[in-house]
Design the sequence.
């Protein structure tokens, strides 16, 4: 599937719009349209229902070491700034960035790829001198080799690089064959001399700055005075709200370890290069669980959550080769983690064979609770994160609160270990959109073959569950159809349509991903039955009007 087709469908049918589009849009922000909001809500609700409300705490789930409880939270986006200092986000939540002085664009260091271009043609040599004269420090021969960068791997087409190099060398396209288009495609991290680098979209070489750290937290001020003391941060993850409320939840409920706290909510990251539709946005929603357990069983719980979360996506229709579970190699793990796995999807905007992260499942040990208690981390086990101040004292103070847990049956006191399944609601929505997009050939009302676009959503997440059509606008058919529509509406989102040829009405619902269409026709008037059409198989069957609601309810639940 080509990504452009999905992007165009999303706009045309009201799944996704660029935020503030009438003002030219704002990079990294997206609005969900009438169909998109239902789709995303259904995904979040399926997650909440499956993880929290319908969780059975009396039975040992398949693959779990014991029974466990699940509960929820809804925390604020802005929290005490100390939370982010202790969690490490204030000092360490950074990406490395390079800036282009010519285009004023910013790039993530690790995302830049490029190719050496060697310029040895006769005509080209003269041209390189001309180019070098415009940049004072460099010597002419240095421009015989230029490292041309592209913005992303996806744009790594040789033709694009050639075009950029031609411009930089000021060479006419017809003289291109006098040049050597040479060299390996390599990442920017392997380049040490930036003087001969031509940045993405730039016309001159040597305009990129040295790489530097860039903190991804968005800032604001709480209160009327914009001072450093009033500086606050929009949360970059929902997880910290759960950690700082751990004691509140234990004290206010009867939950006993092992148990999980779930939260769905907005997070914000000042991404340097938001891209790939909603995949990397600056405002997005997360669906996170922090699961608290005894250190001795934590490995088993990690495996349980890793497999359970993978199954969740599969059950909702992301099965097949495009979905995979990837265990991190030991050298990829954070210092505190004894296991991390990513659930990944082969998004169509990625190069063939590459996958993008949907969800990470991490074993976080007691890192977070201990940090919020003590404000310091073990310097031996986590040398990177610890920044001790003078005399070996912690740089940032913790809350000083006791966040340990006492098992009232064994009397054992311990700091719980945490397993964190952390998913992105927008990334999941995007993956379900990509997976659903299908084209097939079907005859239209006149029997002519036409390409049909059909969004094959799992009925549980489909924005509209059923559409009702009168075949014609007469003979009492609209009245019967409206009655059916009203009864359906009481149970789930339904749609009524009486405009245009019935084939066109079916096509519109196929594009919206509506699993069932109900048609009132001539036969309805004699035997009180209607047809139900299945979106995917196109099979039609007759059902008594009185049974329609139950039949649809059974199929979409
Ligand atoms: N608490 C752990 C945590 O936040 P993460 O891997 O940074 O881990 C978890 O984020 C999930 O949040 C990702 O797997 C992804 O689905 C989603 N996510 C992260 N950054 C995002 C962004 N810029 N845009 C959209 N979704 C994002």
Sequence:
């Amino acid at each position: 599937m080509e990504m452009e087709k999905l992007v165009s469908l999303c706009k045309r049918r009201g799944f996704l719009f660029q935020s503030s589009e009438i003002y030219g849009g704002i990079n990294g922000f997206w609005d969900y349209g009438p169909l998109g909001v239902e789709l995303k809500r259904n995904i979040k609700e399926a997650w909440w229902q499956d993880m929290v409300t319908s969780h059975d705490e009396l039975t040992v789930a398949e693959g779990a070491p014991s029974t466990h409880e699940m509960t929820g939270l809804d925390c604020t986006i802005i929290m005490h700034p100390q939370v982010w200092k202790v969690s490490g986000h204030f000092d360490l939540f950074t990406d490395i960035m390079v800036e282009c002085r010519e285009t004023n664009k910013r790039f993530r260091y690790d995302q830049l790829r490029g190719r050496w271009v060697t310029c040895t043609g006769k005509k080209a040599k003269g041209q390189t001198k001309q180019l070098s004269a415009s940049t004072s420090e460099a010597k002419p021969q240095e421009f015989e080799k230029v490292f041309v960068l592209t913005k992303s791997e996806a744009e790594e087409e040789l033709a694009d690089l050639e075009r950029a190099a031609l411009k930089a060398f000021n060479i006419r396209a017809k003289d291109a064959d006098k040049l050597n288009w040479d060299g390996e495609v390599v990442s920017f991290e392997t380049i040490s001399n930036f003087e001969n680098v031509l940045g993405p979209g730039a016309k001159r070489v040597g305009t990129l700055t040295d790489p530097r750290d860039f903190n991804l937290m968005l800032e604001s001020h709480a209160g009327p005075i914009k001072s450093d003391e009033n500086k606050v941060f929009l949360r970059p993850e929902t997880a910290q709200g759960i950690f700082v409320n751990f004691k509140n939840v234990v004290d206010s409920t009867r939950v006993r370890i092992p148990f999980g706290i779930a939260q769905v909510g907005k997070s914000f990251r000042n991404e340097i290069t938001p891209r790939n539709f909603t995949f990397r946005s600056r405002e997005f929603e997360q669906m996170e669980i922090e699961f608290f357990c005894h250190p001795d069983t934590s490995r088993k719980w990690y495996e349980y959550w890793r497999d359970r979360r993978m199954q969740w996506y599969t059950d909702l229709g992301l099965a097949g080769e495009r979905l995979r579970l990837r265990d991190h190699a030991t050298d990829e793990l954070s210092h505190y983690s004894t296991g991390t796995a990513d659930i990944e999807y082969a998004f169509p905007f990625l190069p063939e064979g590459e996958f993008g992260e949907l969800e990470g499942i991490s074993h976080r040990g007691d890192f977070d609770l201990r940090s919020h208690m003590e404000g310091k981390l073990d310097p031996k086990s986590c040398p990177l994160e610890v920044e001790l101040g003078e005399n070996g004292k912690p740089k940032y103070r913790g809350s000083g609160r006791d966040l340990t847990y006492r098992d009232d049956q064994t009397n054992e006191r311990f700091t719980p270990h945490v397993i964190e399944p952390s998913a992105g609601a927008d990334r999941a929505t995007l993956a379900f959109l990509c997976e659903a997009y299908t084209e097939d050939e079907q005859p239209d009302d006149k029997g002519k073959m036409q390409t049909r676009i059909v969004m094959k959503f799992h009925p549980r997440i489909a924005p509209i569950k059923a559409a009702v059509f009168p075949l014609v606008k007469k003979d009492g058919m609209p009245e019967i159809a409206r009655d059916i529509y009203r009864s359906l509406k009481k149970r789930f989102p339904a749609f009524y349509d009486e405009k245009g040829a019935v084939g066109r009405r079916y096509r519109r619902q196929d594009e919206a991903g509506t699993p069932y269409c109900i048609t009132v026709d001539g036969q309805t008037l004699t035997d009180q039955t209607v047809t139900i059409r299945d979106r995917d198989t196109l099979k039609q069957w007759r059902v008594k009007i009185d049974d329609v609601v139950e039949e649809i309810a059974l199929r979409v639940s």
